[in-house]
Sequence to fold (394 residues):
Amino acid sequence: MGSDMAALRRMERHLLGTAQEANYLVDLSNVVRDRALGGGAPRSLHRLRLVLRALCESTGDREVTVHAIADNSLLHPRHDGEFPDPAEGALLRAWRDRGLIAAIAKADPDLLDHAEEFGTRVISGDFFTGHRGEHPWIQGDREHFLKPERSGGGPVRLVLRDMRVFADREVSREGERDGLKARNLLDFKGRPRADVLGRSWRCPRPDCNPGPAIQRGKVVCRSHRTLLTDLGPRRRRIQLKILVDGTCHAWENLTEGAEGQDKEFVLGRNHLARIEERHLSDERRGRISRQHLLLVSSRGVLRVLDTSLVGSRVRTVRPGGEPTAWRPLPRRDAAAGVGSGQLPRAFGPDDEIELVPGVVLRRSGQRWPEERPEGVRARPPRRPRGGDELTRLG
Fold:
């Protein structure tokens, strides 16, 4: 499929550089790369042309406008050879320079922010699974997303889609994958680079807890872009999410002990210390014990005992199914430790534990959790007797 540059330039009348006045939002990178819309090239602006034609026909508005947002990588000159005509890449950059389209490091967050703020429909084939933590309104939405579809060489149609409800762990895992992709930490098959993520790294900058990234084949600090020093194998971590009234406000990472050894952790009130009162009242916070749960980690398996003064309960929430009934957790005096008779309960990826009404603990779906530099994270308490803090500082 060759390019008709004059026809592509005629699309300009539909492009608006601001979201507020546009009739629709377009996930430009997703559309341009969607081979199902026609043509064998990895990228093609003709696909955008087909989408705009479908939009004009479905709305009956020949002057319908869109605000199109692309990832910066779509416009980079090194990818011009992936278009049927390299001039298409130059045209995209000209549109950006003239303010007709937006190009940023990652388009999805802006697309979803605009959709939420203005109620504008988004044209994309993406389910935006990894963004549902920040945008829970996507779960089950049937009004705001249109998918371009084409079959048998016929015209492109825009189909209103059911965004479905994804399990919390799927949202976490897809969000992690998006982050790894942005840091070049997926291999050519789209798998996480375990050879990098399974190692501990040190940044030469003081007080930096580095997240690795790949740049020109080297492992660098994602914040400072400095070369990192390999400190050896990294112990497995399990990430826990602390939700208040359905929204995650804190998280903790459990680092396993040496191979074959159980490791105990205590979670309690101090782990919620940095959750603001507007999200968690002092009255409800005070009902959580200082040593509320005892968790035991071994070889990726997590078990839990209730050591609180008020009692905790657990249920299982499987994707697409109804939650099971709440059941009390096995209880143990906090000072007794694990080895005094009562067996801890397995804490699986489909389980959620209610500390007090409305405050819930879940396992994250992330496979390679790290210390997160942004947002609120829970503050570790002092080391309790017979256990360890959940996450060490520094």
